[in-house]
């Protein structure tokens, strides 16, 4: 019997993988202290590393809504950790679209999983939203918050209204590449063990 | 000393207010005062719950960052060391309140309380259950990470022999394995406790908003209002 409603096991799976993704994001985020260009390179780092738990998550997804709920959770966590609510619509929209794409492939076909993961990775760009939308204020708050002027200049050279399109595109592309990387790792470790 | 036990809903208000305050940068003296008060309250609450060590650790860390920022560094200082120090202190001073708050909430809220509060606020099951799992999982992931680290050290795999991909693989894959196993056990436990059944759940914990809760809610809302006013209506 195929049940289309989400049950408690699905919710717990979502929770676990959200926590894992967030740990990956946090670990990559720590690198950002070193140099602002690393902040811009999150679009490469997080999709590649995060793809490993994500691909395993995709093997567990069978029903509509799981990816959407995950994106809502990510939005909540981002808010609580002080990243602002500006990115929340983008995060949730990315989750919803990714969900719809994956649904097309019935959550089974890898062909659909690849673009779906690409779209889902767009949530990373939500991190940059405060930088772009409130560029002046944000710069001031960084300076007041104790970042050096050098750091700010470099940050705004890397991330502004013009480069955001490139960053979004990179996110998408590396999300797709990440899907292959993640799939390879999942195949190597988890399918053999019979988990995926 | 009497133990202060806050309602999870109060804690939610506190988290909301603190994350708001953390996002707005403090410029004037009054804003700094509010911000420091808002940071000291969870530290005090942590100490009150008997977590003295972490309370003191947070306090020292925060005080050091604030003092360094205030007296030793300005936006004009250059050089790699001061830039690093500056960035670090800035981050600590900026985000520490939210971190302390989150730490306090995660370590003092029982999952049962949290679920019952969520139910009272009519949050859909999907969000509340997943959120509860996330909350419960952060400490678990940390523990697992430490154990994996030890295991890898025993096999002499520290930093994957310099190869970054290996390092990620050797850490992440075992972590995912153990998380999946824990998840299976968790869902079995959840089903046993009647989560996901069609009926409304009852809870042995009776939640009630007491005087202390009101006090906290008022303090945190006030501090939020002060920030909004000084930011937008000056």
Attribute tags:
heterodimer; A: 196 residues; mainly alpha; B: 234 residues; 2 domains; 0% strand; flat
Describe the structure.
The complex is a heterodimer of chains A (196) and B (234). With 196 residues, chain A is mostly helical. Chain A has one domain (8-129, 164-193). Chain A is built from ten helices and no strands. Chain A starts with 7 loop residues before the first helix and ends with a helix. Chain B folds into two domains: 8-109 and 207-232, no CATH class; 112-192, no CATH class. Helix content of chain B is 75%, strand content 0%. In chain B, helix 2 crosses helix 4 (80-108) and helix 2 (29-48) packs antiparallel against helix 8 (211-232). Chain B starts with 7 loop residues before the first helix and ends with a helix. At the A-B interface, helix 1, helix 3, helix 4, helix 8 and helix 9 of A face helix 1, helix 4, helix 6 and helix 7 of B.
The interface involving the most residues is between:
A-B, 52 and 58 residues
What is the subunit organization of this protein?
heterodimer
Largest sheet of chain B: none
Q: Structural class of the secondary structure composition of chain B?
A: mainly alpha
Q: How big a fraction of the residues of chain B is strand?
A: under 5%
User: What is the overall shape of chain A?
Assistant: elongated
Instruction: Supply the number of structural domains of chain A.
Output: 1
So what's the overall shape of chain B?
flat
């Amino acid at each position: 019997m195929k049940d289309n409603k989400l049950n408690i096991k699905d919710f717990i799976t979502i929770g676990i993988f959200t926590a894992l993704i967030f740990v990956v994001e946090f670990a990559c985020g720590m690198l950002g202290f070193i140099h602002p260009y690393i902040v811009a390179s999150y679009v490469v780092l997080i999709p590649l590393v995060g793809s490993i738990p994500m691909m395993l998550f995709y093997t567990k997804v069978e029903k509509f809504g799981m990816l959407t709920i995950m994106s809502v959770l990510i939005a909540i966590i981002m808010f609580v950790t002080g990243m602002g609510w500006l990115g929340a619509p983008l995060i949730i929209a990315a989750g919803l679209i990714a969900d719809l794409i994956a649904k097309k492939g019935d959550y089974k076909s890898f062909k659909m999983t690849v673009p779906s993961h690409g779209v889902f990775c767009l949530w990373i760009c939500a991190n940059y939203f405060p930088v772009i939308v409130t560029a002046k204020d944000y710069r001031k708050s960084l300076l007041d918050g104790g970042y050096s002027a050098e750091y700010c200049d470099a940050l705004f050279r890397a991330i502004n209204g013009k480069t955001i399109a490139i960053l979004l595109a990179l996110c998408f592309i590396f999300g797709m590449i990440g899907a292959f990387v993640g799939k390879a790792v999942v195949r190597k470790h988890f399918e053999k063990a019979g988990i995926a | 000393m009497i133990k202060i036990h806050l309602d999870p809903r109060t804690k939610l208000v506190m988290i909301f207010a603190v994350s708001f305050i953390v996002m707005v940068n403090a410029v004037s003296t009054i804003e700094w005062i509010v911000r420091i008060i808002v940071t000291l309250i969870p530290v005090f609450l942590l100490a009150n719950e008997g977590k003295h060590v972490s309370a003191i650790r947070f306090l020292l860390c925060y005080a050091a960052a604030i003092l360094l920022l205030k007296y030793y560094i300005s936006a004009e200082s250059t050089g790699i060391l001061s830039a690093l120090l500056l960035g670090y202190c800035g981050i600590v001073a900026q985000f520490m309140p939210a971190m302390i708050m989150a730490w306090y909430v995660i370590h003092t809220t029982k999952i049962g309380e949290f679920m019952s509060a969520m139910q009272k606020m009519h949050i859909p099951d999907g969000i509340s259950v997943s959120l509860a799992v996330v909350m419960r999982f952060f400490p678990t992931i940390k523990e697992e990470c430490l154990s994996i680290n030890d295991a890898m050290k025993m096999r002499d795999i520290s930093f994957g022999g310099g190869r970054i991909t290996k390092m990620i693989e050797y850490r992440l894959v075992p972590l995912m394995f153990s998380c999946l196993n824990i998840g299976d056990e968790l869902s079995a436990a959840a089903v046993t406790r009647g989560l996901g059944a069609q009926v409304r759940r009852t809870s042995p914990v009776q939640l009630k908003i007491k005087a202390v809760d009101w006090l906290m809610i008022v303090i945190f809302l006030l501090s939020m209002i002060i920030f909004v006013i000084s930011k937008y209506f000056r």
